[in-house]
């Protein structure tokens, strides 16, 4: 303070006469001292406040949630020693995790299933504080080798972590699909990375293949996993597997209907009082403004829908996916109610018997059985073996009970019976109840056992530059006859087909949200693009072409835009024919190559057209630095297209087959070969 004050006083010491000094000093002295004192006082207190501010936030409440996110504390508090984390996009990995955690009691252990998104996974280093502790990871791979949404933070942590996990014992079961390029990438990565961080693997990595029989893969792994756990910890099975209810039924006879869920995914009344941001737990109710049939003939129904997202604040990019929450067919729901002799409008809750569990209910409660079976539960897919095992106790006929138990067993004969009678025959829960007349389970236990009805994802068929307030969907209605002669219909596509635009003042609404994708146009509009998308695989490319047309209108230099499209016959299922012709006429779509597979004796597919134009394809790829995009069927088309690129690269790049494969893989790594495929 003194150092600051001293220079400011120097001008007052002048060479004036003593008389002037005396008279001036008396007046100035008072003035300056007052001024300096005032400034000093103001500055002192102002500085004090500034210095004290950082101390104020030191409140325990800010730190407290960290303890709540500790799965270690929860395990200690509830006497658990096995934690099963799941990375799940469609609910299957979560289902497997629940089954493993329930298994633990047979070996005198206690397990809990856990969502990695809800906990601090750095606590894995502390798991050894618990006796006979084990961490199991059921990890699904999503898209092109990506983690599921709920495992993204865990994946990021694993990549950056330098933690010492030497006290951790673990096992991993991965869920993937062999038709995809990066089969089980997430399961493999978690297994490898945990070992690198010093953790001890107590059983080998399990790799489930959804293109084969995922359920059988899981059962086979699980029946070898538990003996390995027993050997490691020196424990034995306590007896036969028993049915243990996870939830208890509470029937509400006198309930305020405003407190009852009617199909909402998260917040009660969220469909009546919509609030952004919209996501998986808070979908937006979009109005259907258009629903038209795209194909001219054939037995299939291909459709184009437009969803109005005005005032939702939803933003999307070309290549993103729209997730849609469908509803089950009311006739299936009614038949289940009739067979089980249940009043479907009974309002009930299923409450978790484990009070410490984060998951209080299997689906939003209180609700009615009708709502649960319509909006929350999957009643159309063949049930998994654990459901059959639990239901067996309710079959009064000994033969039917034995059949159900056999299908749920790990014996080769039982697995074969489950595969033929349930999976290949595509028997859903209604078909099983119809074909086993003595099987009449309580509806509440059935609701506890059935998996959740999942959102369906569609590649967005529009560009937000052209349609900022609308999202377009291109889909084919799934409908087929099973080996038992039943007609099975796809849940979402049949439901979407029935969604007609506004009629008589009432709107058709679709609960939806947008999921971001890595399927993106090149940053520079001048970069050429080669798009390959037969059938409904054309969807994202309609958005891409719309965007390139818009960029051209803005005066941007747009590179070559090449499309390889395929359908059965020109006058049957040539989707978006008029739009594509217009884009070609305008010069936006520089090449339109269409393969009509069934218009000649030999079938012609998109890969045949790529081979036919191989010189041009190589020139675009090698000289033009083109980006390649493939959308559609993963099992055959995407693989055949990739093999064709290997051949083209090998021939024109003067490379061996392994070198050509490496070249294409590098294109993928650099983001120049992108896939949006499904099986």
- What is the fold-level CATH name, i.e. the topology of the largest domain? Rossmann fold
Mean pLDDT: 90
Name of the level-1 CATH class of the largest domain: Alpha Beta
Query: In angstroms, what is the radius of gyration?
Result: 32 Å
How many extended strands? 23
Structural class: alpha/beta
Concise overview:
This protein is α/β, with parallel strands linked by helices and 679 residues long.
Please supply descriptive tags for the structure shown above.
679 residues; alpha/beta; Rossmann fold; Elongation Factor Tu (Ef-tu), domain 3; NADPH-cytochrome p450 Reductase, Chain A, domain 3; 6-stranded antiparallel β-sheet; 23 strands; transmembrane helix
Question: What this model shows, in words?
Answer:
It is an enzyme of class 1 (oxidoreductase). Its cofactor is FMN; FAD. The protein is of the alpha/beta class. The chain folds into 4 domains: 163 residues, 3-Layer(aba) Sandwich (Rossmann fold), CATH 3.40.50.360; 117 residues, Elongation Factor Tu (Ef-tu), domain 3 (Beta Barrel), CATH 2.40.30; 128 residues, NADPH-cytochrome p450 Reductase, Chain A, domain 3 (Up-down Bundle), CATH 1.20.990.10; 149 residues, 3-Layer(aba) Sandwich (Rossmann fold). The strands form 5 sheets. Strands 1, 2, 3, 4, 5, 6 and 7 form a 7-stranded mixed beta sheet that branches. Strand 5, helix 7 and strand 6 form a beta-alpha-beta unit. It is globular, with a radius of gyration of 32 Å. The N terminus is likely disordered.
């Amino acid at each position: 303070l003194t150092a600051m004050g001293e220079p400011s006083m120097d001008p007052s010491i002048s060479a004036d006469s003593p008389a002037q000094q005396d008279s001036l000093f008396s007046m100035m002295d008072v003035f300056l001292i007052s001024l300096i004192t005032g400034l000093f006082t103001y500055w002192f207190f102002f500085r004090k406040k500034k210095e004290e501010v950082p101390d104020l936030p030191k409140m325990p409440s800010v730190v407290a949630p960290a303890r709540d996110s500790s799965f270690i504390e929860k395990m200690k508090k509830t006497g658990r020693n096995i934690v099963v984390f799941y990375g799940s996009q469609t609910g299957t990995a979560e289902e497997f995790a629940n089954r493993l955690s329930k298994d633990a009691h047979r070996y005198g252990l206690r397990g809990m299933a856990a969502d990695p998104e809800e906990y601090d996974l750095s606590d894995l280093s502390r798991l050894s504080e618990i006796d006979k502790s084990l961490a199991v990871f059921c990890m699904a791979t999503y898209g092109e080798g990506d983690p599921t949404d709920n495992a993204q933070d865990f994946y990021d942590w694993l990549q950056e972590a330098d933690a010492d996990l030497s006290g951790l014992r673990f096992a991993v079961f991965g869920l993937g699909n062999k038709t995809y390029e990066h089969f089980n990438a997430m399961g493999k990565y978690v297994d490898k990375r945990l070992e690198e961080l010093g953790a001890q693997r107590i059983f080998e990595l399990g790799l489930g293949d959804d293109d084969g029989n995922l359920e059988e893969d899981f059962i086979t792994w699980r029946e070898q996993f538990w003996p390995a756990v027993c050997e490691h910890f020196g424990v034995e099975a306590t007896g036969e597997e028993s049915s243990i209810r996870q939830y208890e039924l509470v029937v509400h006879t006198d309930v305020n209907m405003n407190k009852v869920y009617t199909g909402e995914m998260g917040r009660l009344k969220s469909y009546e009082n919509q609030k952004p941001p919209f996501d998986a737990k808070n979908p937006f109710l979009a109005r259907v403004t258009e629903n038209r049939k795209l194909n001219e003939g054939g037995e299939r129904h291909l459709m184009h829908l437009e969803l109005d997202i005005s005032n939702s604040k939803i933003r999307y990019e070309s290549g993103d996916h729209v997730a849609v929450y469908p509803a089950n067919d009311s006739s299936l729901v009614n038949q289940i109610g009739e067979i089980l002799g249940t009043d479907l409008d009974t309002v009930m809750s299923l409450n978790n018997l484990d009070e410490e569990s984060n998951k209080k209910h299997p689906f939003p409660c209180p609700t009615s059985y009708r709502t649960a079976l319509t909006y929350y539960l999957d009643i159309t897919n063949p049930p998994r073996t654990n459901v059959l095992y639990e239901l067996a106790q309710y079959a009064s006929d000994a033969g039917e009970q034995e059949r159900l138990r056999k299908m749920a067993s790990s014996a080769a004969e039982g697995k074969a019976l489950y595969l033929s009678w349930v999976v290949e025959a595509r028997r859903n829960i209604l078909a099983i109840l119809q074909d086993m007349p003595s099987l009449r389970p309580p509806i509440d236990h059935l609701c506890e056992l059935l998996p959740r009805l999942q959102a369906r994802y569609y590649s967005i068929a529009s560009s937000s530059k052209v349609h900022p307030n609308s999202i377009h969907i291109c889909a084919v209605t799934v409908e087929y006859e099973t080996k038992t002669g039943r007609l099975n219909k796809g849940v979402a596509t049949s439901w979407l087909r029935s969604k007609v635009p506004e009629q008589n003042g009432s709107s058709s609404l679709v609960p939806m949200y947008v999921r971001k994708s890595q399927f993106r146009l090149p940053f520079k509009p001048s970069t050429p693009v080669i798009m390959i998308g037969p059938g409904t695989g054309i969807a994202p490319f309609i958005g891409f072409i719309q965007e390139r047309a818009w960029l051209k209108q803005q005066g941007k230099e747009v590179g070559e835009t090449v499309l390889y499209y395929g359908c059965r016959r020109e006058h049957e299922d040539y989707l978006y024919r008029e739009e594509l012709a217009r884009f070609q006429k305008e010069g936006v779509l520089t090449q339109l190559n269409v393969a009509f597979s069934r218009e000649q004796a030999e079938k012609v597919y998109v890969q045949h057209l790529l081979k036919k134009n191989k010189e041009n394809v190589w020139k675009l790829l090698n000289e033009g630095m083109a980006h390649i995009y493939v959308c559609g069927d993963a099992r055959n088309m995407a693989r055949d297209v990739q093999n064709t690129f290997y051949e083209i690269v090998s021939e024109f790049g003067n490379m061996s087959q392994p070198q050509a494969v490496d070249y294409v893989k590098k294109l993928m790594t650099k983001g120049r070969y992108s896939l949006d495929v499904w099986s």
